[in-house]
Amino acid sequence: MTRLQYSGFGGVGLAAEAYGSADDPIVLLLPGAGQTRAAWAAAAPALAATGRYVIALDLRGHGDSDRADDGRYDLDAYAGDLRAVLAELGSRPVIVAASLGGWIATAVLGEGGEHLATGLVLIDAPPHMASAGSEDMAQRLRRAADSGARDWDPRILDGFDTAAAAPRLTEAAARVAVPTLLVRGERSPLSSPEAVQELADRIRDVESVEIADAGHLVATDQADAFNAVLLDFLERRVPRVPPEFRAGSDPRTLRDALGCFATGVTVVTTLDPEGKPVGLTANSFTSVSLDPPLLLVCLANNAGSLPAFRAAPHFAVNVLHNGQQPVSGRFASRGEDRFAATDWETWDTGVPIVSSSLASFECAQEALYEAGDHVILVGRVSRVRFEPRRDPLLFFRGKYRRLHFS
Q1: pTM of this prediction?
Q2: For the chain, is the Cβ count within 10 Å smaller at the N or the C terminus?
Q3: Which CATH number characterizes residue 114's domain?
Q4: What is the pairing mode between strands 180-185 and 119-123?
Q5: How many domains is the chain partitioned into structurally?
Q6: What residues pair up with 123 in beta bridges, in sequence order?
Q7: Which residues form the Flavin reductase like domain (predicted)?
Q8: pLDDT tens digits for 100-116?
Q9: In a shared domain, residues 389 and 266
Q10: Residue 265 sits in the same domain as residue 128
Q11: Residues 210, 265: one domain?
């Protein structure tokens, strides 16, 4: 076991313990309100024994993590902590989170952080808790705070607005895009089967399990049953052994592997035989030669505009900047007048140039090669313009990305 320290939102120090080898896939454990990383005393070593690198975190105001000097224990502060921790990790983890930890993870992964994790396990964490059970739990925590028998900041009780967070978390759940497992203890006083089902109905890729004879503290009430459920989910949905493609197997696996190469995004344009502008989005683009100046793009055989590119003597490649994601989406869709909603201009050859692109290359067609389900279009560059003050729009594993500056 190794002690770790992270810097969270506003510089709050966050303490953690790590189990296993740092070279293994990461599982990040987040406890609930009034709990510390000790809540995972059974789960953490069991996960590490199966080849996972397990990080058990103390939330702000809990355990060995700092108390917030400014009293910030709201959802935004907790979410900022989690984003900061995820930014420091060497790879994207599976997040396993109980109650308050589950709310934090739902907010982060459903509010612009869809790419920050590979899986999510929520333990007794529906946005809408049973009122009677919630009130009873709050009273118990307040009694513990009054008695001094606690290892958490009592200001937490008034710092988190559960009622205000519920609708926000409900909306965020609909945008969670990773494989998700919902776990409920059969005897939990804080959640109902109906509340868990309501949450499941919001998440697109979800499974749900109820563990018999367990209450709210599922991971400790029935540790063996919980660990078995968790390990089964991880091995099925986020396997430790990387996927492998062999000739003749599922081409989707090959596509996913190719998607591990991060690329820029381009819009390739030309004129059809009637002089009408045509274009499409492509990320298979590369420099070929500086002398002579050659580049290439790969166009799918089923692209509706491919006949125009085959026949055109000239074309342009427009590399998009990080503010042009709508342009990329427009030229990747069907049935839309792509140029009507796009600022464009012409240069020497008359082919469309997308205005204000990160870089635009005007080319003469040099060669065209048939290559499986694509055509390789080689162009000789005749004119270039680029914008050195902007950053690129990136594409990685099927999603748009932006540069992260540390």
Answers
A1: 0.71
A2: C
A3: 3.40.50.1820
A4: parallel
A5: 2
A6: 98, 183
A7: 258-402
A8: 999 999 999 999 888 89
A9: yes
A10: no
A11: no
